[in-house]
Automatic annotation (TrEMBL):
Gene3D superfamilies: 3.30.530.20
Organism: Microbispora catharanthi
Pfam families registered for this protein in UniProt: Polyketide_cyc2
Official protein name in the record: SRPBCC family protein
InterPro entries assigned: Polyketide_cyclase/dehydratase, START-like_dom_sf
PANTHER family: BLL4707 PROTEIN, SRPBCC FAMILY PROTEIN
Signal peptide from the UniProt entry: none
């Protein structure tokens, strides 16, 4: 099964978008439905750091697995989630659109679940698409 996926083009330099997106503790600033996002354990940008995210969907605890400034990617895992899923891993990537100077941003995930299509729909429609739309508006 293909996991949830969303992408967008932002009218801003890829380096500027990445500089903002790579901040693991700022989710509450740009993801709709998130009321708080706090670094609870570890250095804010070091792999292994844990963030606690609260919002309309409940409480999530997520751990940064990788942060690659050269490739402009970050990958994180969910440690606790109100959603019935396991082994959740998500990646955000920012790439330059070379002919326009814009930024291409994608967000995708993999996980195990008893109802994977239902979870994919929740994540795509409720998190990834509105999140990238909000990020795009932030830079417009």
């Amino acid at each position: 099964m293909r996991g949830p996926y969303a992408s967008t083009v932002i009218s801003a330099d890829a380096g500027d978008v990445w500089a903002y997106l790579r901040e693991f503790g700022n989710l509450h600033e740009w993801l709709p439905g998130v009321s708080t996002c706090e670094i609870e354990d570890g250095e804010p940008l070091a792999p292994g750091v844990v963030r606690r995210v609260e919002g309309a969907g409940g409480v999530f605890r997520e751990q940064l697995l990788t942060l690659d400034d050269e490739e402009r990617t970050l990958t994180y895992a969910t440690l606790e989630s109100p959603l019935p899923m396991r082994d959740y891993r998500a990646t955000c990537r920012v790439a330059p659109v070379t002919d326009s100077g814009q930024a291409f941003v994608e967000w995708y995930a993999s996980y195990e679940a008893d109802a994977p299509d239902k979870i994919a729909k929740i994540l795509t429609r409720g998190v990834f698409v509105p999140g990238l739309e909000s990020l795009r508006k932030r830079f417009s």
